[in-house]
Write a structure and sequence with these properties.
mainly alpha; about 0% strand
């Protein structure tokens, strides 16, 4: 619970949980460290199952400076 919420653009949007597995349709490859971890039957360090995967970056947050990323990263959760 809590890892599979739909993105909200404004605070008035309802909080909705997504059911089922979350699959990134844009992902075509897996990095070597993650591949090796999966082969060993373990969950990768930055997997969605650990709540650390952020997914696709919204257009509004693309092109931010490093300082802006640090500020947004403190309050934006997926």
């Amino acid at each position: 619970m809590g890892y599979t919420r739909m993105e909200r653009k404004v605070s008035s949007d309802p909080i909705c949980e997504l059911n089922g597995p979350i699959i990134d349709q844009d992902c075509r490859y897996i990095c070597k460290p993650c591949k090796e971890t999966v082969k060993r039957g373990r969950v990768p360090k930055f997997a969605l199952a650990r709540g650390l995967w952020l997914g696709k970056i919204p257009e509004e947050l693309q092109g931010l400076s490093f300082v802006e990323q640090l500020l947004v990263g403190r309050i934006r959760h997926n």
